[in-house]
Design goal:
Layout: H1 2-17, E1 20-24, E2 29-31, E3 47-51, E4 55-64, E5 77-84, E6 89-94, E7 107-118, E8 123-132, H2 133-137
Antiparallel strand pairs: 1-2, 1-3, 4-5, 4-7, 5-6, 7-8
The protein binds zinc ion.
């Protein structure tokens, strides 16, 4: 029973770690998180697994100056809605960047960071965060 639970957690982690979504071949739309059914095509939709490249730009963002205890050390931090190059949007933290430097339209790429550690089994949860592409490569487009 317990092992089953751990396996489930790992499956979930794998999905987050890879930015695993899906793609509808019928209408060429990308989804994250993956949808069981394409909301546009419904029964005509043909869904396939898709691993996002993790490149995109900032659509909107907010600077968080107050946070629950677990995240207090990181305040202030930036949470943004990222529009991935494939068109899907997701929410993530912006790291490796001064909150003052963050702007709408900024090119970002996913990086994977430890978010928290929990349980006596020492399960570490990783998640995607985003960092400015410019800072990593020196070019706005990798
Ligand atoms: Zn579709």
């Amino acid at each position: 029973m317990a092992e089953h639970g751990v396996a489930q957690i790992w499956r979930k982690i794998k999905s987050i770690y890879n930015i695993q979504g899906n793609h509808c071949k019928t209408c060429d739309t990308y989804y994250f998180p993956p949808r069981p059914v394409c909301p546009e095509c419904r029964r005509k939709g043909v869904l396939e697994d898709y691993r996002f490249k993790g490149l995109g730009k900032i659509h909107t963002f907010a600077v968080v100056r107050q946070a629950p205890d677990t995240f207090k050390r990181q305040v202030p931090y930036v949470v943004a809605q990222i529009e991935l190059d494939e068109g899907a949007r997701l929410t993530g933290q912006i790291v490796n960047c001064d909150p003052e430097e963050v702007e709408i339209g900024m090119r970002v790429r996913a990086c994977f960071r430890k978010i928290t550690e929990f349980g006596d089994k020492g399960i570490i949860v990783y998640g995607y965060k985003f960092e400015p592409v410019l800072k990593v490569t020196g070019h706005p487009y990798p």
